[in-house]
Specification:
By secondary structure, the protein is mainly beta. 0% of the residues lie in helices and 49% in strands.
Length: 115
């Protein structure tokens, strides 16, 4: 059974640089596409970033490009989202997802950015 568990969220000041982690169970993590999404109150879930199995290909939403970095450690079955220069509009529940299409989802970790 595949499980995704996010961590690293919390209350952060604007300009802060937290790192989110997503630990993934399952034997095929190393060949799976991984991604991060977020959902702010009253808004639809939106794509943030994705990474292919090797880490060689990444994609970012325009709103986070240049500030966020997605990476993965296949030996640890973990994907990361390094967030820099946070803004209040980055406040959201952040989810990691796995697969193509996105079949498996975590429960999310809340990131709240104070101005």
């Amino acid at each position: 059974q595949v499980q995704l568990v996010e961590s690293g969220g919390g209350l952060v000041q604007a300009g802060g640089s937290p790192r989110l982690s997503c630990a993934v169970s399952g034997r095929t993590f190393s060949i799976s596409r991984m991604g991060w999404f977020r959902q702010a109150p009253g808004k639809e879930r939106e794509f943030v970033a994705s990474i292919n199995w090797s880490g060689g290909t990444t994609y970012y939403a325009d709103s986070v490009k240049g500030r966020f970095t997605i990476s993965r450690d296949n030996a640890k079955n973990t994907v990361y989202l390094q967030m820099n220069s946070l803004k209040p509009e980055d406040t959201a529940n952040y989810y990691c997802a796995r697969g193509n299409p996105w079949r498996y989802w975590g429960q999310g970790t809340q990131v709240t950015v104070s101005s």
